[in-house]
Automatic annotation (TrEMBL), chain A:
Keywords annotated in UniProt: Acetylation, Coiled coil, Cytoplasm, ER-Golgi transport, Golgi apparatus, Membrane, Phosphoprotein, Protein transport, Repeat, Transport
Extent of the ARM repeats: 60-97
Location of the Vesicle tethering protein Uso1/P115-like head domain: 351-647
Residue ranges annotated for the Uso1/p115-like vesicle tethering protein C-terminal domain, each copy included: 840-962
UniProt membrane topology term: Peripheral membrane protein
Cellular localization per UniProt: Cytoplasm, Cytosol; Golgi apparatus membrane
Lineage, broadest ranks: Eukaryota, Metazoa, Chordata, Craniata, Vertebrata
Protein name: General vesicular transport factor p115
One GO CC term on file: ER to Golgi transport vesicle membrane
One matching Pfam family: Uso1_p115_C
Family from the record: Belongs to the VDP/USO1/EDE1 family.
Provenance organism: Ictalurus punctatus
Main location: cytoplasm
From TrEMBL, chain B:
Claim: GTP-binding is one of the keywords in the record: yes
Lineage, broadest ranks: Eukaryota, Metazoa, Chordata, Craniata, Vertebrata
Species name: Ictalurus punctatus
Protein name stated in the entry: Ras-related protein Rab-2A
Record Pfam families: Ras (PF00071)
InterPro entries: P-loop_NTPase, Rab_GTPases_membrane_traffic, Small_GTP-bd, Small_GTPase
Length: 963, 166
């Protein structure tokens, strides 16, 4: 361990070489040692040396330390030492700031060293990625120095490190997770890291916001006790500012996420205002107010600002701010910022402006907040920044607020002046004519804001009369303003009254008044006339401009030139002595055009002009710099060009121009004439077009009707021809039809006769049928009789034959009927064809015929029906016949059965007879044998046989009887 | 603000850059997104060809449950179409995405694209796939039980960035 001794020795001796040597040795050790413990010890030693021998450790050990970060990730201890060492060499220690006595140059050198080392570290992007991965390690001794190191790197080489973090996957997300770390130290240092990370990089800001930063930060702020919280709250607020400032996307997200509503609670200050404003609290509140202002800044897009303003009013944030505004014991610093904040919250938002106008201070009697604020503005003893803030607030209150402008101006008008209470108007007038030039300026600008873009109020203000002193007639406000200008000037030169000299000679006062006058009479010819009406004004202005004064007066000269220019530009030529023309001649004679233009240019060339032009809030480093107003600078820009043009034009040019104008007008009139003509012609054309279209329509209609008619005619012609032809055919004799009809009649009668015949035939048939019926019934009876005995088959066959004959008859009759029917049909057809060909001329005849025909057809119908009924009855008869036939058949069958039975019984009988005969023979033979044998045993056997045969006989007899 | 199933849902839609150079930045948005809209331009085949890499990126860096919607934009420019609707459908089917063609110009299907994404996410919440108490999913219950989703909308070719985190 002799290197340790070396270290000790080096330190004790205080000689650099030994230090360098030691570091060299340690680096070798780190690089070559195989044992982790050795390396660890070496890194630890490097760490302890890194503050004192920062340069040496940095130059020699950095590579090795980075290598450790790569290769020894498993050992958190060595990682921690390495990170600490790197941090020490890169970080520009804050402690050094304490040694302010030390040479500044040396410090800068030290800073440079840090930046150089940071550069070397970042040169390889992998190192930053490596560091990000090291941050994954949960161990406090690794994560904490890691966070600090990354913060230090960001401080040195912000943009580069941001770039690397941005493109490494999950880089930003991982750093955001630091805010969720349970160890406060890491969370707080994480806040510092994110502050550095989000500086000026919109992409990172957006991702951080995406990772729910607003929610987490607001939670931390609430946890830490909002404005009463410590530096952590401040860090959170700074980070929020970073995220929101100039980042419209995040601002929108903040608003959409309803975070504005959560800001409200920040400003709910308790009543412990008994000096309970710690420096930290002031800082915190200041930042909170700034955050509100970021959301409603005039540089944001008007739409975004308007919606934020709306939600700030709706959630009560504005009301809360106004409470602070009117509260007592608020430090001036906070009060000023609160006024500025309120200003921007109400700027251009009618609802918020109206609310602000209604706010009253809790004094007795209650006064409007505006009045209270104006009192501070014209009060010399109030801090300058506060007075500026009030002016800003007043400006914002009147910005695009015609109602507010009218209210302010009305407090100056004679009819509404309330002598009892102090009004805004009174305060402004007081400020305008007070001995304090700053008040003069502020009051002038404030009053000018009441007139901006509002010609109505410009005219109203002309009515204002002032009572200067007793005994003298009241003079108008305009008059008084010009008087102060000219008096001040005159008096300052004559040095008659020291008091007035101080008042009038102050550049600030005159600039203020000139701005007011310029605003007042611009775009308001009546005010111009009023201004010119005072005989002293124009000579005063020309004198001011033409004089060759010192540089201090340049601005006043420029403003005088502007005022004179406005007098020309907005001149309605109503005053004979001061028409446009005459004023121009005056400039030419007394000042010279070039000179006038040069003097006019003094305004915009002024160094403070551009600064005021940039933003609406009046911010001045010193009260002396308070010369320009933002709205006024806009007005100047607007007017400068047109005035220069208006003045530069010579009278001839003017005349020419007028001529040109006249010709132009003539042209215009001609053109309008032509236009009218064209318009008329246009109308005519359209009318004609309509007519044409109507005509074509009509024409088409006509054509179609014509074609229709033509076709009709053709049809008629055809019909005519057909008729002619028909007539020609029929022409053989017009009686033909009659004949035809006559024939028909004859035919009909013939038919009728036939029908009659048929009917008779039918009746005949019916009678036949009845006869047959009778026959059948008799047959049935016979059959019934024959059931007892065999029936006579011959009769049956006879009957059948008869039926057959009848059937044939019926069939023939049917045939006859059908023939008749067909004949009749033919006749009908004939009559129909005849009736079809009948021509118009013969309709009468025809109708007659038709009538007859219809009668005939009716008859034929009737006949048909008759026939039908006949055929029906016949069918019935047939059925009956069939029934009779069937009964006959049944009877025959029965008979056949009986016959069979008879034949069977006969057979049996025969058999029995044969048997009997046999037995008789046997008996006879046996008897013979017995006889031959001489025996007399015949009794028993004989008897048996006899009995048997008797029985059989009986049976037979019985059977025979049955038959 | 949209209403699904009678519930108010506030969508937070983040438009991320679609150009290749911003891909690494876009990666930062995948975590904490509940859904993404992958948008290509139907009149430019190269944007369609890049889908695979973008999809890989999204799958790799996001919650595996992230709802991804495939959008073919500029459907109003039928005459200049280079990618067929069927191709988009096929790609979506192959990768398990929901497909739609939209036109930002005529606003056709645009509303539907976001509503469908939200519906899908809502269904996944109902199924319990998303843990609504874990804010890393990009979902949180609103004050009146209105869910808030952040959706990334990312597009390619600068026309409309596509990638949405809900």
């Amino acid at each position: 361990m002799n290197f340790f001794r070396g270290v000790m020795g080096g330190q004790s001796a205080g000689t650099q070489p030994s230090g360098v040597e030691t570091i060299q040795k340690l680096c070798d050790r780190v690089a070559s040692s195989t044992l982790l413990e050795d390396r660890r010890d070496a890194v630890r030693a490097l760490k302890s040396l890194s503050k004192k021998y920062r340069m040496e450790v940095g130059t020699q050990a950095m590579e090795h330390l980075i290598h450790i970060l790569q290769s020894d990730q498993s050992d958190s201890e060595i990682l921690g030492y390495a990170l600490d060492t790197l941090y020490n060499i890169i970080c520009n220690e804050e402690e050094e700031e304490q040694d302010e006595s030390e040479d500044d140059g040396q410090r800068r050198q030290e800073d440079d060293v840090g930046v150089q080392f940071a550069d070397r570290f970042i040169q390889d992007q992998k190192n930053v990625t490596l560091l990000l991965s090291v941050l994954e390690e949960f161990d406090f001794h690794v994560r904490w120095p890691g966070v600090k190191l990354l913060t230090a790197l960001l401080k040195c080489q912000c943009a580069q490190v941001q770039g690397v973090v941005l493109i490494s996957p999950m880089g930003v997300s991982r750093l955001m997770d630091l805010l969720a770390d349970s160890r406060e130290v890491i969370r707080n240092d994480g806040l510092l890291l994110l502050q550095q990370l989000t500086k000026g990089n919109a992409a990172i800001q957006k991702i951080v916001a995406f990772e729910n930063a607003f929610e987490r930060l607001l939670d931390i702020i609430t946890e830490e006790g909002t404005s009463d919280g410590g530096i952590v709250v401040e860090d959170c607020l700074l980070l929020l500012l970073n995220l929101l400032k100039n980042n419209s996307s995040n601002q929108n997200f903040f608003k959409e996420g309803s975070f504005i509503q959560r800001m409200k609670q920040w400003f709910q200050l308790g009543e412990e205002s008994g000096g309970g404003w710690s420096a930290q609290k002031v800082t915190n509140l200041h930042l909170m107010l700034q955050l509100v202002r970021v959301m409603v800044s005039p540089v944001n897009s008007p739409g975004a600002t308007a919606s934020c303003q709306k939600s700030m009013f709706q959630c009560g944030l504005l009301q809360q701010l106004c409470t602070i505004l009117m509260a007592t014991g608020v430090p001036a610093d906070i009060l000023t910022e609160t006024i500025n904040t309120v200003s921007e919250v109400i700027r251009g938002s009618q609802v918020n402006q109206d609310y602000f106008a209604s706010v009253n201070a809790p004094s007795n009697p209650p006064r409007p907040a505006i009045v209270v604020l104006l009192m501070s503005m014209v009060n010399e003893r109030q801090p300058f920044v506060l007075r500026c803030a009030v002016l800003y607030c007043f400006q914002c209150f009147l910005y695009k607020n015609h109602k507010g402008q009218a209210e302010i101006v009305s407090t100056l008008l004679p009819s509404t002046i309330d002598a009892q209470s102090i009004s805004a108007g009174q305060l402004l007038c007081g400020g305008l004519f007070s001995a304090d030039s700053l008040s003069n300026w502020c009051a002038s600008v404030a009053l000018a804001h009441a007139l901006h873009d509002n010609s109505n109020q410009k005219e109203q203000l002309l009515r204002v009369q002032l009572a200067t002193s007793l005994g003298k007639p009241p003079i108008s406000l305009l008059q008084q303003c010009t008087n102060i200008l000219s008096q001040g000037d005159k008096i300052s030169r004559k040095a008659e009254s020291e008091q007035v000299k101080i008042k009038g000679s102050k550049v600030q006062t005159r600039v203020g008044l000139l701005m007011l006058l310029c605003t007042w009479i611009s775009n308001c010819p009546i005010a111009v006339t009023h201004f010119l009406h005072n005989q002293e004004n124009v000579p005063f202005l020309t004198a001011q401009i033409s004089e060759n004064l010192g540089e201090d007066e340049n601005l006043v000269q420029g403003l005088c030139a502007l005022l004179l220019g406005i007098c020309i530009y907005y001149n309605d030529n109503s005053l004979e002595n001061y028409t446009k023309e005459k004023l121009k001649q005056l400039i030419e004679k007394r000042i010279g055009k070039e000179n006038f233009a040069e003097k006019l240019g003094f305004i915009t060339k002024h160094e403070l002009y551009s600064r005021a032009f940039q933003k609406p809030q009046p911010t001045f480093s010193t009260p002396e710099h308070m010369l320009f107003d933002h709205e006024f600078t806009k007005l100047v820009k607007e007017l400068e060009g047109v005035i220069t043009k208006a003045v530069h034009k010579s009278s001839e040019e003017d005349k020419k121009e007028e001529e040109v104008k006249k010709t132009l007008e003539q042209h215009d009139s001609i053109i309008t004439q032509y236009k009218e003509l064209i318009r008329e012609q246009d109308a005519q054309i359209t009318e004609l077009k309509e007519q044409v279209s109507a005509m074509t329509c009509q024409k088409e209609q006509m054509e179609s009707t014509i074609t229709q008619q033509l076709s009709q005619i053709q049809q008629h012609k055809d019909q005519y021809n057909i008729l002619k032809l028909k007539l020609g055919k029929d022409g053989a004799g017009s009686q033909a039809d009659v004949q035809v009809n006559g024939v028909q009649v004859e035919e009909l009668t013939a038919l009728r006769l036939e029908l009659e015949e048929l009917r008779t035939q039918h009746t005949l048939l019916q009678t036949n049928l009845t006869e047959k019926d009778n026959l059948i019934t008799s047959l049935k009876a016979e059959a019934a009789r024959s059931a007892e005995g065999p029936a006579p088959a011959s009769e049956n066959t006879e009957l059948l034959k008869e039926v057959e004959a009848l059937r044939v008859q019926v069939q023939s009759q049917q045939a006859e009927i059908s023939q008749l029917q067909s004949e009749r049909r033919e006749l009908q057809r004939r009559t129909q064809t005849v009736s079809g060909s009948v021509s118009e001329a013969e309709t009468a005849k025809l109708s007659e015929l038709e009538q007859r025909l219809s009668a005939q057809t009716a008859e034929t119908h009737r006949l048909q029906e008759d026939v039908r009924t006949h055929s029906e009855s016949r069918a019935q008869l047939e059925k009956e016949l069939a029934a009779a036939n069937s009964t006959a058949a049944i009877l025959q069958a029965e008979k056949a059965k009986l016959q069979q039975e008879v034949s069977e019984s006969k057979k049996e009988q025969d058999d029995l007879l044969v048997l009997l005969a046999d037995q008789d023979q046997k008996i006879l033979s046996l008897k013979q044998r017995l006889k031959a044998l001489g025996e007399t045993i015949e009794d028993e056997d004989d008897l048996d046989v006899r009995d048997q045969s008797d029985d059989d006989d009986d049976d037979e007899e019985e059977e025979e009887d049955d038959e | 603000m949209i209403t699904i199933d009678g519930k108010q849902i506030k969508l937070q839609i983040w438009d991320t850059a679609g150009q290749e150079s911003f891909r690494s930045i876009t990666r930062s948005y995948y975590r904490g997104a509940a859904g993404a809209l992958l948008v290509y331009d139907i009149t430019r085949r190269d944007t369609f060809n890049h889908l695979t890499t973008w999809l890989e990126d999204a799958r790799q860096h996001s919650n595996s449950n992230m709802v991804i919607m495939l959008i073919g934009n500029k459907s109003d420019l039928e005459s200049r179409r280079e990618v067929k609707k069927e191709e988009g459908e096929a790609f979506a089917r192959e990768h398990g995405l929901i497909f739609m063609e939209t036109s930002a110009k005529t606003a056709s299907n645009v509303e539907e694209a976001f509503i469908n994404t939200a519906k899908e996410i809502y269904e996944k919440i109902q199924e319990g796939v998303f843990d609504i108490n874990n804010e890393a999913n990009g979902i949180k219950i609103g004050p009146q039980h209105a869910a808030t989703n952040s959706t990334l909308a990312g597009g390619q070719g600068g026309q409309q960035a596509g990638g949405g985190c809900c």
